[in-house]
Amino acid sequence: MMRGVLMLGAFASLLGCASARVDAVKSCYHLNAAVETDIGYCQAVRSGNTLHISGSVGRGDMPGAIRAAYDELKKTLAENGLDFRAVVKENVYATDLDAFIRSKEVRKEYYGTDFPAATWVQVQRLYLPAFVVEVEVTAEYPH
Question: Which of 13, 26, 68, 112 is 20 to 30 Å apart from 97, CA to CA?
């Protein structure tokens, strides 16, 4: 009998969890609304305590391109009340990964010693052929 009551209680609690609904508010931030709306994206989207930042790009020589991409990320983070300490995940897409690796010290200037999880990949090309690096990050707001 007791086993049946426990099973019924467990089942009821599972149903309660399954029917509970969490409404996360999703908000869009534009760095350049005209361009982003034309293409069809937000520079950043906040959902709950997470900020997803679209790829920021750089062109030209790799050290300068890295600086341009990370400066744009810095601006987007700041506009949303965060800095690089809040970044938990980074994805880098480079047309020349070896050049990015040789210039990784530029990237470290932004993170200091508080690094996120990271993935770096080489791609054939980015949205515009002049772009040589694109960096997207995910940041978390403090609880």
Answer: 112
